[in-house]
Write a structure and sequence with these properties.
Helices cover 74% and strands 0% of the residues. The chain is elongated and about 75 Å long. The chain starts with a helix and ends with a helix. The mean pLDDT is 83. Helix 2 packs across helix 3. The longest helix has 27 residues. The chain has one domain: Rna Polymerase Sigma Factor, Chain: A. By secondary structure, the chain is mainly alpha-helical. It has 6 helices and no strands.
């Protein structure tokens, strides 16, 4: 089935066409996603979220010739990946260390380092 016919069928919410789109384009779009998301499981989540957006927003897509559908999907996947990164970055900044963290994990390594360094010098 041609790309244009797949789009028409997807706009009619035909699950067979959606499956064909996923099967045909997921590998390439996964590669695009992995440029932004290195973790395989996270990338797969982003791909799934991206395809959900693709199929729910397909009515907005306007056919402009061969390849236009792929580039439209690619843009959705990239934006989904960037939003995922932004959300996780924000999440990391929101986390704060528990009170007293510095006191618990602070150690005096000065003597340990000096002894270790001295032993290393003796071995040379």
């Amino acid at each position: 089935m041609s790309e244009e016919k797949l789009v028409i069928q997807c706009k009619k919410a035909k699950s067979s066409a959606q499956y064909e789109v996923y099967k045909s384009y997921a590998p390439r779009l996964r590669g695009v996603c992995r440029r932004y998301i290195s973790d395989t499981a996270e990338a797969e989540d982003v791909i799934q979220e991206g395809f959900l957006k693709i199929f729910t927003q397909i009515e907005k897509f306007e056919w402009q010739g061969d390849g236009s559908f792929f580039y439209w999907m690619k843009r959705i996947i990239i934006n989904t990946a960037l939003n995922h990164l932004k959300k996780n970055k924000q999440h990391l900044y929101d986390e704060s260390l528990p009170e007293g963290y510095d006191e618990i994990y602070q150690t005096d390594d000065t003597n340990y380092f000096d002894d270790d360094y001295s032993n290393t010098l003796k071995m040379m």
